[in-house]
Amino acid sequence: MTAASIAALVFVAAKPVPTPKPVPALQKLQEAAQAGDATAMNQLAWRCSSGAGFPEDSRKAFELFRKAAEAGNPPAMLNLAARYRRGDGVPKNEERANEWVQKAVTSLEASAGHGDTTAMFALGSIYQFGVGVAVDQTRSRQWLEKGSNAGDPRAMTALALSLLQADKDPQQAFGWANRAANAGEPGAMTLVAGLFAAGHGVSRDEKQVLAWLQKAADKGDAAAMRLLGERYDRGEGVTANKVDALKWLQKSAAAGDAAAMTEAGMQLATGTGGAKDEPEAARYFLSAAYEGDARGMFNLAAALANGRGIAKDDELAAIWYQRASDRGEAAATNNLALLYMNGRGVEKNAAEGIARFQKAAALGNVEAMHNLSQAYQKGIGVDVDLRKADEWEQRARAGTETARPH
Amino acid sequence: MRRALLIAVLAATATTTVFAPPPKKPSQGEKPKADYSDWNCKWFVTCQGENFVVEVKVSNPKTTGGHTFDAHFLPGGGKCEIGVGAPQFRTTFLTGWMSNGSVSGTIYLCTTSQELVDKNQLGPIFTRHFDASYEEGWVPGGSSIVNAVYKNEHYKRSDADTKDSAPSEPSATSGPYQRDEPGDEDSGFEMHRFRPGLDQVTTDEPNSQTTPPQSGASRIKEKAKDITHDGIHEWMNSFREWLGGPRI
């Protein structure tokens, strides 16, 4: 995420622009799609589907996916199948969905039969994640083994992960990850670093951890950069250095790692590792939120609710709290409940507030438990019930007790 | 009235998010706060790369003048894992004296260098003098200890270690090792009143009361699970890129 795109996002948040004009790169994508390039049609369809750089138009997205699929593009076939299954841009049609999945699988199997390792990786992934088919890890592993034996580093990394997930033979998993890492696959380098750090499938070795993270970071792996930042922040395997920590987190954020955007924002918001810079922190939170990071959404909402580094806007705060809450961020659910209780950014609705306090409390949020106790004690949104008030207070205390150090 | 009061409290809490509101600076001529009763509660600390909760006790909180300021770990907390005889649990985090905006005293820290433990047979816990100032927040939970510093942990090698070392090493003496050397940097810590739901404690290790201690093997498995989870997320993104879609 470049500074320019971060600034653009700020602008979008402050003043939503319904139909942004395509930037030059998107213009080229549009031209390629119009010229009949199936890959470009498929990518453009995604953008039309999500409104990323183009007006959101599910019907147009469907048509583009259909054209690309009919041109023989397997990813487009799977995307088209998903639209038929969901009824997105087209009436629901399970039968057509299954047909297109079958066409995609047949096409990929044919390519794999001719030694196309990307097709092998794709088939392994389709069965791993159950894309239009039932999850079948045995079948997935068979395709990944074929791809790995044919020398595909992506397939090797995925195979290592599949073995680790199944808790099968960590040594073999390390072996595949190591082969992929030595073949220059950045994700495998980060995985190898993690296995060295945990001592899983290989003896623990801090020097190897740092060496592999550094290699992966040099290759542009955003996760490796974030992990390096976290290590400098905590002084794990290196001398703690908050300045270097922030530097790596910012690099990772620039490379697109959403969690790093949030962490960098947190450092800037608190002035850790550099000067306190709330506007810059808010920009990071905004970027992280747009990238789908729940903690980023929560922090952005908090910044909006408090006017910290960004113009105060309770309505937008409520929207982002809601999005973070939808992703299971209990603190966001609690804060959204407070907005409902106070009618800030949303219509005042004590019942909604109480329901959200209960949801947050069920997720272990201690503050929500305190708030429920208060509500029952004072009869806000619920009838006065001192027994329940006491119960929630006890649970809050017990919850606070669990928030203890090791 | 009660209802209005609660709403006011809730509104204040709603604004207490990741950003601690700016502490109120006492204006010229303003009387110092005479009641620190609300400081006697749980505080959130960041020190030596860990986040944890302590219980603060301020003596005679309703009187003016100085007060003792003590912070104790919660049961099961304060674990120091590196050093001879480790693990050991600290009961006290700080013990000090607060007056006129300043607080100073003794801080209890964990030894962190395994290499120097091996060479000098260091214990898991050591103490340092600390100096800090404090600010009183204008919203519940806003009070904080700021500008807190203590001497960083550095070492001179012991006799045993230097016997075979190059002559440039400090001359061998029969005295104990020294942790600090001239020019050592100061380290800091931060603490403020604990904000449940907002302040996240370090969770690398299990809670000693709620979860039985994990064996080394199960810790490795837990870490491996996290690595695998992150890796599979990356795998999914790699596959989404192949599908032509955005990363998630």
Helix/strand layout:
The complex is a heterodimer of chains A (406) and B (248).
Chain A: H1 3-14, H2 24-34, H3 38-50, H4 58-70, H5 74-86, H6 94-113, H7 117-129, H8 137-149, H9 153-165, H10 170-182, H11 186-198, H12 206-218, H13 222-234, H14 242-254, H15 258-270, H16 278-290, H17 294-306, H18 314-326, H19 330-342, H20 350-362, H21 366-378, H22 386-402
Chain B: H1 2-14, E1 42-47, E2 50-58, E3 67-73, E4 79-80, E5 88-89, E6 92-99, E7 102-110, H2 114-120, E8 125-135, E9 144-151, H3 159-162, E10 186-193, H4 216-243
Antiparallel strand pairs in B: 1-2, 1-10, 2-3, 3-6, 4-5, 6-7, 7-8, 8-9, 9-10
Describe the model.
The complex is a heterodimer of chains A (406) and B (248). With 406 residues, chain A is an all-alpha fold. Chain A has helices at 3-14, 24-34, 38-50, 58-70, 74-86, 94-113, 117-129, 137-149, 153-165, 170-182, 186-198, 206-218, 222-234, 242-254, 258-270, 278-290, 294-306, 314-326, 330-342, 350-362, 366-378, 386-402. Chain B has 248 residues and is an alpha+beta fold. Chain B folds into two domains: 2-210, no CATH class; 214-248. Chain B is built from four helices and ten strands; from the N terminus they run αβββββββαββαβα. Chain B is globular, with a radius of gyration of 23 Å.
Largest sheet of chain A: none
SS element count, helices of chain B: 4
Total DSSP helices of chain A: 22
- What's the assembly state of these chains? heterodimer
User: How are the strands of the biggest sheet of chain B laid out side by side?
Assistant: 1-2-3-6-7-8-9-10
Roughly how much helix do the residues of chain B carry, as a percent range? 10-25%
Shape summary of chain B:
globular
Mean pLDDT of chain A: 88
Biggest sheet overview of chain B: 8 strands, antiparallel, barrel
Question: Structural class, from helix and strand content of chain B?
Answer: alpha+beta
Evaluate the radius of gyration of chain B. Answer: 23 Å
Provide the β-strand percentage band of chain A.
Answer: under 5%
Beta fraction of chain B: 25-35%
Instruction: Give the rounded overall mean pLDDT of chain B.
Output: 66
Principal-axis shape of chain A: globular
Topology, number of strands of chain B: 10
Total count of strands of chain A = 0
